[in-house]
């Protein structure tokens, strides 16, 4: 064993470059594999993980406070593994305009602390309320989330927002102290249950709830929401990421396996000569195999340990960005099995890929092994070289073009590496272009400026921005129409559109439909670019509806819907489908303001209910306009809305990281191929230099050999990447119950394709450059003398 | 003969590899048309001397001039061009490209200079014909005998009409019959004016092909002798 170890150690020392290459390739491949696995794992069950991390309730039960006794509820334990409560609960209306989107009553729960055996809240900002007049809002931990408010009116009382907490199970919209909720006329009592039995179906949970509430007076249990309802809602958001993560994850795995296989088996094949020498010295075939396995495993183990750590570190920000915004950050991290794969499966893969050629060496005689250690003498590529010798090309180029044909297996591996690298780059480029187009469209549509009049109790800031620190809540003295006129009159304003969000009952549907009533210049603001079918509204009896709303209503373009508001009805024709609604609130149908006036002629719309969208003339200064708004009316909060969406940022982050990683790994695959080719052909190179091949010609020859593979890999990888883009992005949008306008998918134009065609070439040339220069510097005397 | 016929001039050349002195104070001249053999035991510095003259290695001290060109002052690219145009090399193990047939192996040397394939192949065929192996032009090295491979290597070395033909143990890997053929070939080349420097262990090769033998030991020239009256003697012969 000592002899084996000594020989392996000597081989590692003697082949420093190869050892370095094996270590580096395994390191980067393991990093890629880890990022891919961690992302795949996170996307496979993020809800379950976050739910477990918060000890989420399997059922959120609300009881009629008048019919139950809190002590009795707490004592009921049939089938219950853990319970929290009773918490008293009030349903209160918030002030106008305090929270974006249609107004709705908020569920306010009195809780003494955010912890407990069930529903352990993530108090991610501020502190828990300790006294009267303090409230914590339920918001996912997301720095770029909805606008934050500092004060809130609940049931006519003003509360200071002292923190933000997150309940994945949505057990409340806001929390106050138990004493405080008592003063808010609570109507319900909340119990949060984790059951010991089957909780896999709604029926099973209903049965569990029935068991724990049996014997209560009729009507005591007002509602019981199973956790599966929340899970299904979140699934839509999570499903957006899954196709993208899976694409990058699978690409990462395949590229890494291909490259590791190529590099490791190449390292052993190139060592055949050494194997022959060892055999001649008296090493047994088993010892020779052991020497080679140790030789590749030493750098591989170092590479995979470092790669595992780097992979976990690299994946973490992507996970945080990707899932915390949905409130799924809790419990998300590198799964132990993924770490185990990095630490055990990668070395196993290395050992396996080294084992196959090592076994071949095991079977060869010493003499055969020695002669097998150099470039193939006959056969592959001979005809190609012959043809190229007569081609009208510089000889260095024609020699380079012939080189890949000498080792078809290695060439195929190298092309596969470049192909997968180019596929990834193409897909990532298409994804980036599509997202940029969507962002451009969205920015154009939603921007540039939002104006929200204060309701006199709170102030608002832009997305992810706090309200101006010096802003005092006050009410504007202007009417809605006057605010609109003011905004039009300020320098730089090109278009102004007032937008009012309401939930409006629709005939034939049990749930009200979110509607944004729009007027002003809305038709000129670019919303047409968001249409995926149909056209923009031309008459007040027409509406354009986001895909998500259409799906929930089960309607399509051409169908009609009847709004029923304040006792009046109006029928609208759906003339267009759009990917999103107005820039505030959840997606909602666009309806002309005249319809609101017709349905509710007596309604006086307060400015604080309205969101004003402003677009400026070309070249106008957004900041200056915002300042002008504040100066003209201090009760108006104006903010810059043009920004890249969180989703785009997240997706672009991980697509860029993985595209770079995979391109680097692919380039390393090329690097390894060139190192092996040069090593095997060092005698030929020495001879060529001895007869007058210049260093530049050597570099040209080596780069040409890989450029050919780069172009082939690129030519094959581009259509694959385009195919992936064409299939996966619409699938992603469908998962999000949305759709993508054709204009955003139409990203493949000549300049982009030309640049992508260069991607394979660039990967190949970057990978080949260093070993090509090394080849050019080969010392002829040394090479030829070693024969 | 005048000094302008001097093809190779080594002045007090020293070459060190880490702690080893491979050549120490070697001075040597080879003149146009001469055939010089360098002999000596293994490790005496023969190959190092050949490498210096071929521009494959640089001296630690002293100067190496070939056709008046100080090789120590040339960068790698200029050295490559120097080898391409001035030097032809023959190796013990032939060093042919295995994936090219004999004709293309020979033509390669000219093609690297930018000569188009067709004229390069024409000239290669002429050389193969002169060396008696034109019928083997489409044969790959693996299918050639040792003697035939060395003839192909000689043809390749002559392709660019070099001023100096360097042969490193040209018969070392050949059987005696093939070795004889190669010796005849070298002798013939020298007799038509080709300047030759042969590094060899083989006394028979040296005495048959060279007009002068330089004996090296421990990196120094210990003796120079004129030995073959049939072989033209260069102007710098100090025998």
TrEMBL record, chain A:
Region spans: Disordered: 447-478
Membrane spanning residue stretches: 20-40, 240-269, 289-314, 334-356, 412-431, 647-678, 698-718, 748-770
Subcellular location: Cell membrane
Mode of membrane association: Multi-pass membrane protein
UniProt-listed Pfam families: FtsX
UniProt domain ABC3 transporter permease C-terminal: residue ranges: 247-365, 657-778
Keyword terms, alphabetized: Cell membrane, Membrane, Transmembrane, Transmembrane helix
PANTHER family hit by this protein: ABC TRANSPORTER PERMEASE YTRF, MEMBRANE COMPONENT OF TRANSPORTER-RELATED
Family indicated by similarity: Belongs to the ABC-4 integral membrane protein family.
Protein's name in the database: ABC3 transporter permease C-terminal domain-containing protein
Automatic annotation (TrEMBL), chain B:
Keyword Chloroplast in record: no
Classification via Gene3D superfamilies: P-loop containing nucleotide triphosphate hydrolases
Signal peptide start-end: none
GO molecular function terms attached to this record: ATP binding
Domain ABC transporter: from-to ranges: 8-239
The entry's keywords: ATP-binding, Nucleotide-binding, Transport
PROSITE patterns: ABC_TRANSPORTER_1, ABC_TRANSPORTER_2
Organism superkingdom: Bacteria
Name of the featured protein: ABC transporter ATP-binding protein
Source organism: Luedemannella flava
Lineage, broadest ranks: Bacteria, Bacillati, Actinomycetota, Actinomycetes, Micromonosporales
């Amino acid at each position: 064993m000592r002899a084996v170890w000594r020989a392996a150690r000597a081989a590692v020392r003697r082949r420093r470059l190869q050892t370095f290459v094996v270590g580096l390739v395994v390191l980067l491949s393991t990093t890629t594999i880890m990022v891919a696995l961690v992302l795949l794992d996170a996307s496979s069950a993020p809800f379950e993980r976050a739910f477990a991390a918060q000890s989420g309730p399997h059922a959120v039960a609300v009881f009629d406070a008048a019919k139950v006794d809190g002590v009795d509820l707490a004592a009921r334990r049939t089938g219950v593994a853990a319970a929290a409560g009773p918490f008293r609960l009030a349903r209160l209306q918030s002030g106008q305009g305090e929270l974006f989107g249609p107004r709705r009553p908020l569920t306010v729960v009195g809780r003494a602390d955010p912890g407990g055996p069930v529903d352990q809240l993530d108090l991610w900002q501020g502190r828990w309320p300790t006294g009267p007049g303090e409230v914590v809002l339920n918001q996912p931990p997301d720095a770029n989330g909805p606008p934050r408010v500092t004060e809130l009116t609940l049931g006519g009382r003003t509360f200071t927002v002292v923190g933000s907490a997150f309940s994945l199970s949505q057990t409340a919209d806001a929390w106050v102290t138990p004493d405080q909720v008592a003063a808010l006329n609570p109507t319900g009592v909340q119990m949060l249950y984790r059951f010991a039995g089957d909780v896999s179906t709604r029926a099973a949970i209903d049965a569990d709830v029935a068991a724990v509430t049996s014997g209560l007076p009729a009507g005591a249990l007002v509602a019981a929401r199973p956790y599966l309802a929340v899970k299904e809602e979140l699934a839509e958001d999570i499903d957006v990421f899954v196709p993208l993560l899976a694409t990058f994850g699978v690409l990462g795995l395949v590229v890494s396996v291909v490259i590791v296989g190529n590099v490791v088996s190449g390292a052993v094949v190139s060592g055949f000569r050494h194997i022959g020498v060892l055999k001649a010295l008296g090493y047994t075939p088993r010892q020779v195999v052991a020497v080679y396995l140790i030789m590749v495993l030493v750098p591989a183990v170092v590479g995979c340990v470092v790669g595992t750590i780097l992979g976990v570190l690299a994946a973490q920000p992507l996970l945080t960005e990707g899932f915390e915004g949905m409130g799924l950050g809790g419990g998300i991290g590198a799964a132990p099995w993924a770490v185990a794969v990095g630490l055990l499966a990668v070395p196993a893969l290395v050992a396996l890929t080294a084992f196959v050629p090592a076994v071949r060496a095991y079977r060869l005689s010493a003499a055969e092994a020695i002669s097998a250690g150099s470039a193939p003498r006959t056969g592959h590529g001979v005809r190609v070289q012959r043809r190229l010798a007569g081609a009208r090309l510089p000889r260095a180029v024609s020699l380079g073009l012939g080189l890949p044909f000498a080792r078809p297996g290695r060439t195929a591996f190298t092309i596969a590496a470049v192909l997968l690298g180019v596929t990834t780059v193409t897909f990532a480029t298409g994804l980036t272009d599509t997202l940029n187009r969507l962002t451009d469209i969205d920015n154009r549509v939603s921007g540039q400026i939002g104006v929200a009049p204060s309701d006199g109790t709170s102030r608002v800031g832009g997305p992810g921005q706090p309200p101006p620190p010096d802003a005092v809540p006050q009410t504007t003295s202007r009417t809605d129409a006057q605010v609109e006129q003011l905004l039009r009159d300020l320098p730089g304003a090109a278009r102004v559109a007032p937008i009012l969000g309401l939930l409006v009952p629709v005939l034939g549907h049990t749930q009200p439909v979110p509607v944004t009533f729009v007027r002003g210049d809305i038709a000129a603001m670019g919303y047409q670019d968001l249409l995926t079918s149909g056209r923009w509204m031309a008459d007040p009896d027409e509406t354009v509806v986001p895909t998500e709303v259409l799906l929930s209503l089960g309607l399509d373009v051409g169908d009609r819907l009847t709004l029923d508001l304040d006792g009046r009805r109006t029928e609208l024709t759906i003339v267009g489908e759009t990917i999103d609604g107005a820039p505030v609130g959840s997606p909602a149908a666009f309806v002309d303001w005249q319809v609101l006036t017709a349905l509710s002629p007596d309604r006086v719309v307060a400015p604080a209910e309205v969101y004003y969208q402003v677009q400026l003339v070309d070249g106008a200064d957004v900041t200056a306009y915002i300042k002008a708004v504040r100066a003209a009316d201090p009760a108006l909060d104006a903010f810059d809305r043009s920004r890249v969406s969180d989703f785009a940022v997240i997706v672009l982050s991980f697509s860029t990281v993985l595209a770079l990683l995979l391109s680097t790994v692919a380039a390393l695959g090329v690097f390894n191929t060139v190192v092996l080719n040069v090593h095997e052909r060092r005698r030929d190179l020495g001879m060529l230099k001895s007869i007058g091949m210049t260093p530049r010609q050597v570099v040209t020859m080596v780069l040409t050999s890989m450029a050919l593979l780069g172009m082939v890999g690129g030519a094959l990888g581009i259509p694959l990447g385009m195919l992936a883009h064409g299939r996966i992005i619409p699938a992603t949008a469908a998962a999000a119950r949305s759709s993508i306008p054709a204009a955003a998918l139409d990203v493949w134009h000549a300049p982009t394709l030309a640049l992508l065609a260069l991607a394979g070439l660039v990967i190949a040339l970057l990978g080949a450059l260093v070993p090509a220069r090394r080849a050019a510097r080969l010392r002829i005397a040394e090479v030829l003398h070693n024969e | 003969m005048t000094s302008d016929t001097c093809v190779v001039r080594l002045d007090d050349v020293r070459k060190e590899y880490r702690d080893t002195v491979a050549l120490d104070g070697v001075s040597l001249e080879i003149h146009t048309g001469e055939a010089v053999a360098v002999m000596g035991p293994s490790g005496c510095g023969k190959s190092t001397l050949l490498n210096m003259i071929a521009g494959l290695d640089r001296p630690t001290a002293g100067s190496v001039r070939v056709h008046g060109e100080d090789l120590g002052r040339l960068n790698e690219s200029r050295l490559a061009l120097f080898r391409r145009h001035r030097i032809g090399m023959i190796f013990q193990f032939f060093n042919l490209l295995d994936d090219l047939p004999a004709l293309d192996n020979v033509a390669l040397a000219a093609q690297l200079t930018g000569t188009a394939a067709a004229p390069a192949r024409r000239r290669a065929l002429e050389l193969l014909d002169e060396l008696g192996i034109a019928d083997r032009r489409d044969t790959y090295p693996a299918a050639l005998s040792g003697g035939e491979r060395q003839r192909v290597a000689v043809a390749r070395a002559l392709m660019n009409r070099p001023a100096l033909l360097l042969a490193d143990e040209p018969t070392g890997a050949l059987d005696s019959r093939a070795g004889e053929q190669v010796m005849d070939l070298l002798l013939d080349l020298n007799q038509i004016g080709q300047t030759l420097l042969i590094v060899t262990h083989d006394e028979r090769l040296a005495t048959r092909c060279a007009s002068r033998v330089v004996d090296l030991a421990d990196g120094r020239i210990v003796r120079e002798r004129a030995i073959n009256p049939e072989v033209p003697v260069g102007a710098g012969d100090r025998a």
